[in-house]
Amino acid sequence: MKKYMASFLFCTLSLVAECSHPSSSLIAKEGEVTDTKTGLIWSRCSLGQVWQKGKGCVGEVELLRRNEAEERVRLLGSKWRLPSLEELLSLLERRCKSPMINARFFGNVYDFTSEGAIYLSASIYLEGDEVLPTLFYTIDFMNGGVDAHTKSFVGAVRLVR
């Protein structure tokens, strides 16, 4: 039993450590993360949370419909915006198992929708050459999966500029 428990703890700790590794392209400064590779600046916390020094992201992640997210972004002014799918994909850390985003920079991402850690994007769904404006892309940071949802679907929002 001790052997199995030690093995489990080692595997669990190695996954956490693997997903908190240093990054050559990400630089954190208080509540923001700059990606030197893409030139993007990200909010460290999801909407609904605030950054507190020494504590990280504090508060509850807000789950919003697409139009609610767009309204919240509009109220914040021109500083922040909803990211595209490609921009969200740039946050995936292939070395991480679950979640697939670096916890060292973006805090504790967990299954808060009961379907995963699903984040909304600004990108409209394309099927072949056809644009389907009733659907938009989302990304699940638990497994890196991309999906399309209707505008009534609720998900988390990570802002970018």
Description:
This protein is α+β, with helices and mostly antiparallel strands and 161 residues long. Helix content is 23%, strand content 27%. The strands form three sheets. The protein has a three-stranded antiparallel β-sheet, with no helix packed on it. The protein has a three-stranded antiparallel β-sheet with strand order 6-7-8. It is globular, with a radius of gyration of 17 Å.
How is this fold's topology laid out?
Blueprint: H1 2-18, E1 26-29, E2 32-35, E3 41-43, E4 50-52, E5 56-58, H2 66-76, H3 85-89, H4 103-106, E6 118-127, E7 130-140, E8 145-150
Antiparallel strand pairs: 1-2, 2-3, 4-5, 6-7, 7-8
In short:
By secondary structure, the protein is α+β, with helices and mostly antiparallel strands. The protein contains 4 helices and 8 strands. The strands form 3 sheets. The protein has a 3-stranded antiparallel beta sheet, with no helix packed on it. A 3-stranded antiparallel beta sheet has the order 6-7-8. It has a two-stranded antiparallel sheet with strand order 4-5.
Which features characterize this protein?
161 residues; three-stranded antiparallel beta sheet; single chain
Please count the helical segments: 4
Overall residue-averaged pLDDT value: 84
Distance between the termini: 50 Å
Helix content range: 10-25%
Share in β-strands: 25-35%
- Low-pLDDT runs of 5+ residues are 1-18
DSSP, total strands: 8
Shape descriptor reads: globular
Helix/sheet category:
alpha+beta
State Rg: 17 Å
Widest sheet, order of strands: 1-2-3
